[in-house]
Amino acid sequence: MFKKDDGWSFMETLIVISIVLILTTSVGFMGMNSLEKARKASVISQIDSLCIALEAFYIDTGSYPTKEQGLSALRIKPQVEPISTFWNGPYLYKEVPKDSWGNAFEYIVPGKEGSPYGILSFGTDGKEGGEDDITSW
User: Which site from 41, 65, 71, 84 is most exposed, i.e. has the minimal number of CB atoms within 10 Å?
Assistant: First the structure.
C-alpha cells in the first residue's frame, strides 16, 4: 500500500506551478526589454553604415545626394539632377534597409546642427518627435 507522504499533495503542486509561472513571466518581460535594446542597437548600426556610404558617395561625386535623390542614390545611379559623372557606386551592397520596426529611414538635407545631411528613424511609434527617435546627429 501507499504511505501517507508518497508524492505531492494538490496544494504543493499548485504552489510549484505558481512559482514556475511567476519565474516564466519575469523572464519574458526581461526578454522583451532586451529585444527593444537590440532593435535600437541595430538601428544605430544601420545609420552608421548609411553615413559611411554617404561619405563614400561624397568623396566620389563631390556632393551628397539631394533630398529628391534620397538614400536610393547610394544603390542606384541617380536619375534626378544633379547627376554626377563621377558616381562610382553602388555604395551599398543591398537595397537601403528599413529600420528595426519596418519603417523607412528619413533622409534630411541639410541636416540638423550644421551637418550636411541627417538620417532619422522614428522608432517604435513610427512618428517624428518621440523620445524613441534615433538620429545621426
Answer: 41
103 grid coordinates = 519603417
Whole-model pTM: value is 0.74
Tell me if 76 is assigned to some domain: yes
35 within some domain: no
* Alpha-carbon gap, residue 117 to 66, rounded angstroms: 9
- Average pLDDT, rounded, for the chain: 87
Half-sphere exposure in the Cβ direction for 36 (13 Å, CA): 9
Between CA 104 and CA 125 the distance in angstroms is 13
Split at pLDDT 50, 70, 90, the class of 23 is: confident
Q: Would you say residue 22 lies in a domain?
A: no
Compute the CA torsion angle 121, 124, 125, 129 (nearest 10 deg): -40
pLDDT of residue 1: 54
User: In whole angstroms, how far apart are CA 137 and each of 38, 41, 119?
Assistant: 20, 16, 8
Q: How many structural domains comprise the chain?
A: 1
Amino acid identity of 64? Y
Query: CA 97 to CA 71: how far, in whole Å?
Result: 10
**CATH number, domain containing residue 110:** 3.30.700.10
